[in-house]
Amino acid sequence: MGVSSTTPHLLRAARGEVVDRPPVWMMRQAGRYMKAYRDLREKYPSFRDRSEIPEVAIEVSLQPWRAFQPDGVILFSDIVTPLPGLGIEMDIAEGKGPVIFSPIRTQEQIDNLRPLEPEESVPFIKTILQALRQEVGNKSTVLGFVGAPWTLAAYAVEGKGSKTYSVIKNMAFSDPTTLHQLLAKLADSIAVYMRYQIDCGAQVVQMFDSWAGQLSPQDYDIFALPYQQRVFQQVKQTHPDTPLILLVSGSAGVLERMAISGADVVTVDWAVDMAEARARLGKHVKVQGNLDPGVLFGSKQFIRDRILDTVRKAGNWGHILNLGHGVLPETPEENVAFFFETAKQLDAAGVRG
Ligand code: CP3
Fold first, then answer.
1. Separation of alpha carbons 90 and 22, rounded Å
2. Residue ranges per domain, the chain?
3. Site feature Transition state stabilizer: at which residues (predicted)?
C-alpha cells in the first residue's frame, strides 16, 4: 500500500483497486478460540450482554485486532440481534445458537411484525461501530454484517438451528404465499439495518445467507436470491459506494447465482477450487476465501503452502483472503497468528503471476 494512501487496504480491494497483496481477515475472528474471549465470557456469561453492552462488544471486536492486526475488524454481534426490534424475541444459548421464543408459524404473527427502527431497538450498534472506527483509524477496515432473509426466516420459523429445515420447507412448499410475506418484511428491515450500520461507520457489510445452501438451485431462485437482491438493491440506492459481500454456506452449486445477487464480493468455500470458482464467476466478480478452516490444524509449512496456493489461484485482483467459513473454536491461537503474519508478508513479486 502506498504511504500516501488513507483508504484502508481491504476497502480498496473490495472497491476493485489493485493492491500489493490480498487483504486478510477471518470470519468469526472474535470468539471462542481466543483465551481473552473465553476469560471475558466468564465475566459476561450471556451472549446478548457480550454483544449488546457496548464496552464489552467493543472489547471483544478488538481482541483479534490487538492480537493479529487483521485488515478487517468485524463488529461483534449476531445475525439474530435485530430480530427483537421486529417483535421476534430471542436469546442465544450457550453451545446451541439462537432460540426464538415464539416461532413464526401463522399469518397473524407475520402481520404483527414491526419494521426495524434501529435508533430505538439497536442503538448500541452505533456506539460499537463508531468506537471501532475511532480505534482502528485507517489501519484497518471496519466490517458490519447482517443475516439474509432466508436464513433469518429459517431461525424465525424453525425457532432454532435445524438439520432438516422441515418446518420452513413445509411452509415454503405448501404455503409459499405466507413465507414470501415474511421474507419480504425481513428483507426491508435488513436493508434498513444495513444502511444503519453504514451510517454508523461500517465501511463494508457482509450478508450471511448461511442456510441458503440447503435449498435446491430452483428453490434458491424462489426463496433466497430475490430477497438477497431486494436487500442489496435497496442499500445500493442510498449507499452505492459501500462494498457488500455475500456468504452462503455450501455454495458450490449456486456460485453463479450468487454473482447476480447484487453483491460486490462473493465468498467461496473450500468445497470449490479457487481457480475453478474464478473461472465460473468470471473476471469481473470479486471473491473472498477460501481456505478450509481445518487447515489451521495443520503444520506451519502446510498453512503457508495453502495460503500461497489460494492466493495464486485467486489472481492479483479482487481477492480478499479469508477462510471459507468461520474459524473453529478448537483452533490454536498460535496458528491464527501465523496465518495472519504469513498473509501480511505476501508481496506482489513473490507470489502472484
Ligand atoms: O466474525 C465475527 O467475529 C463476528 C461474530 C459473529 C457471531 N455470529 C458471534 C457468535 C458472526 C459473524 C455471527 C454470524 C452468525 N450467527 C451466523 C452466520 C455465520 C455462519 O456461521 O454461517 C449464524 C448462522 C449465526 C447463528 C449462531 N449464533 C450460531 C450458529 C451460533 C453458534 C452456536 C455454537 O455455540 O456453536 C451462534 C452463537 C455465536 N455467535 C457465537 C459467536 C462467537 C458462539 C457463542 C459464544 O461464543 O458464546
1. 38
2. 3-345
3. 78
Measure the CA–CA gap between 194 and 245, rounded to whole angstroms: 12
Q: What is the pLDDT of residue 349?
A: 46
Q: At 258, is the pLDDT very low, low, confident or very high (cuts 50, 70, 90)? A: very high
Which residue in 21, 50, 71, 78 is the catalytic one? Answer: 78
115, 86 contact by CB (below 8 A): yes
pTM of model > 0.90: yes
User: Residue 156 — pLDDT band, cuts 50, 70, 90?
Assistant: very high
Residue in the structure block whose three cell numbers are 456506539: 127
Catalytic-labelled residue, pool 15, 28, 48, 304: 28
Burial 343-352 (b: 16+ CB within 10 A, else e): bbebeeeebb
Which triple of cell numbers denotes residue 113?
Answer: 411484525
78 is an annotated ligand-binding site residue: yes
Residue 325 labeled ligand binder: yes
Q: Mind listing the pLDDT tens digit for each residue in 86-131? A: 999 999 998 899 999 999 999 999 999 999 999 999 999 999 999 9
User: Would you tell me how many other CB atoms lie within 10 Å of the CB of residue 324?
Assistant: 24
Name the CATH topology of 3-345.
TIM Barrel (3.20.20)
Q: What cell numbers appear for 156 in the block?
A: 424465525
